[in-house]
Amino acid sequence: METLQSNVPRTPATAGRAPAGEGGAAPPGGAACEVVTVPARQGLEAVDILRRAAAGAVGLVLHDGGGTLGFLVPPGTAAAWDVPGSTCTQTGGRGPALVPGPPTAADSGWLLPPGGTDPATDPAVLRAALGEAARLIAAADSCR
Predict the structure, then answer these.
(1) CA distance to 65, 73, 138, 142, 144, per residue, from 122 (Å)
(2) Which of 76, 83, 142, 143 makes a 20 to 30 Å CA pair with 31?
(3) What residues have CB less than 8 Å from 137, skipping those under 6 apart?
């Protein structure tokens, strides 16, 4: 099983940062992941869309237990991320890095934890799912 190496509690707000001097091993592809943070309602809807679309379409997802979800995405995503209502934290290679090892108590906060999936969600696939989720939410809200 794979886990994230860090002493920082994992929330979408902190997942894109590692403490000074800490790096861990890089995930496949050789660099640390970045994090797209979205409101929980839209993020949960997007996770459902991605999971229905294809096995493996969604990577690791963090949940802060409240108002936001964080999708791990490949390095470099932040430079071109332009989805309204979301942010992408550029980590400069200092974001979460996957290393082998058993999960620890600090690994709480995972909606979709490390395991048999690719750690990062494809940004184009995530962008489409977030757009579809926003449309579904708007349609549901207009029916009230």
Answers:
(1) 24, 6, 24, 30, 33
(2) 83
(3) 41, 42, 45
